[in-house]
Amino acid sequence: MPQSIPATLIPGDGIGLEIIDATLAVLRALGAPFEWDVQVSGMEGVKAAGDPLPAQTIDSIRRTRLALKGPLETPSGGGYRSSNVRLREEFKLYANLRPARTLIPGGRFDKIDLVVVRENLEGLYIGHEHYIQIDDDPHAVAMATGVNTRQGSRRLLEFAFEHAVATGRKKVSIVHKANIMKALTGIFLETGLELYERKYKGRFILDTVIIDACAMKLVLNPWQFDVLVTTNLFGDILSDLVAGLVGGLGMTPGANIGANAAIFEAVHGSAPDIAGKGVANPIALMLAAAMMLEHCHLPHMAARLRTAIDLTLNVDQVSTGDLGGQSSTAEFTRNVVGRIGNA
Ligand code: NAI
């Protein structure tokens, strides 16, 4: 039995509790040795502690350096700043790794196996925004500042290139908009090309593609891509696009990795439209847990979990409504747990 691993657990908002319960059930069935410290954030943090990111939650992750997190609600327009963005900043989680793999063969896009590596701390996400008042309109002009640094770009690109080499990927595409945002995304492109020439040439093919063309190419022929590495906002949008290629947001996990901590989550949000109905697809968070197991050097457990999900979907034909199935979150989870038990 592996030694116990302290980890922070943030159930989150909306469907968070439902998919966290489901994921804990499969981790228990695997005998995963996580010792959970349960904490709140997002809207639950506001309700319980008057703060969308309570100090206790930060302290817990500082101690464990490892977290599994449900989605956190962020109000649009006004209201508090995203707790997700604040967590990434607090723990300098500069790399966001978002793999998308076909789990159910025979769909509109078959045999997809892509990874989006997104810069997680810079760009237009830094939140330096303001309005300028003209006459009696306080919101007459809206402004945002984006910041990308050479050092921030390099560390993310290096992470992506190392990931490509370690996982035997053949091609990395740098996605940018340096034709228009010549400085803001030009620095990312330039740094990537320089790093490749200096350190990675010949270890994989490097390709560059402009974001708008990339979106079109991903829909026409996604198989031409392998690893996509890009700046914060483009990565956010592209990872949802790529999720759509493999059956939707219920299928794609994400890892936020930094030097001092790693936080694992689903790519999707709190899905308020289906929260509390017991119908959410827990696969994305289960796959995030699989990434967490690999991060903790427990790849055999991650492999058992992936196999159990595969057998549930493709042999037992059990799936939730977003995938065209009829099962509830709990029924799907019971099946995965059963498959783990029988393996
Ligand atoms: P969303 O990802 O929550 O939902 C988009 C659509 O996908 C909805 O129709 C939803 O029902 C569906 N969906 C998402 N996950 C699903 C699942 N597991 N099973 C079945 N269907 C699923 O995006 P939305 O509605 O734009 O955002 C809702 C809230 O989530 C916002 O407050 C947003 O800020 C937050 N959010 C949080 C994220 C995080 O914590 N990492 C990421 C994205 C959004």
Can you characterise this structure?
With 343 residues, the chain is an alpha/beta fold. It folds into two domains: 1-91 and 260-343, Isopropylmalate Dehydrogenase; 105-248, Isopropylmalate Dehydrogenase (3-Layer(aba) Sandwich), CATH 3.40.718.10. It has helices at 16-30, 42-49, 55-64, 83-90, 150-166, 186-200, 211-220, 232-245, 283-295, 299-314, 329-342; strands at residues 5-10, 34-38, 66-69, 95-101, 113-119, 123-134, 137-147, 171-176, 205-210, 227-230, 253-257, 262-266. Helix 6 (186-200) links the parallel strand 8 (171-176) and strand 9 (205-210). The mean pLDDT is 96. The protein binds 1,4-dihydronicotinamide adenine dinucleotide. 1,4-dihydronicotinamide adenine dinucleotide (NAI) binds at residues 15, 71-74, 84, 249-250, 265, 268-274, 280-281, 284, 322. The site of 1,4-dihydronicotinamide adenine dinucleotide has 20 residues, from loops.
Blueprint (SSEs and pairs):
Blueprint (H helix, E strand, L loop, with lengths): L4 E6 L5 H15 L3 E5 L3 H8 L5 H10 L1 E4 L13 H8 L4 E7 L11 E7 L3 E12 L2 E11 L2 H17 L4 E6 L9 H15 L4 E6 H10 L6 E4 L1 H14 L7 E5 L4 E5 L16 H13 L3 H16 L14 H14 L1
Parallel strand pairs: 1-2, 1-3, 3-12, 5-10, 8-9, 8-10
Antiparallel strand pairs: 4-5, 4-11, 6-7, 11-12
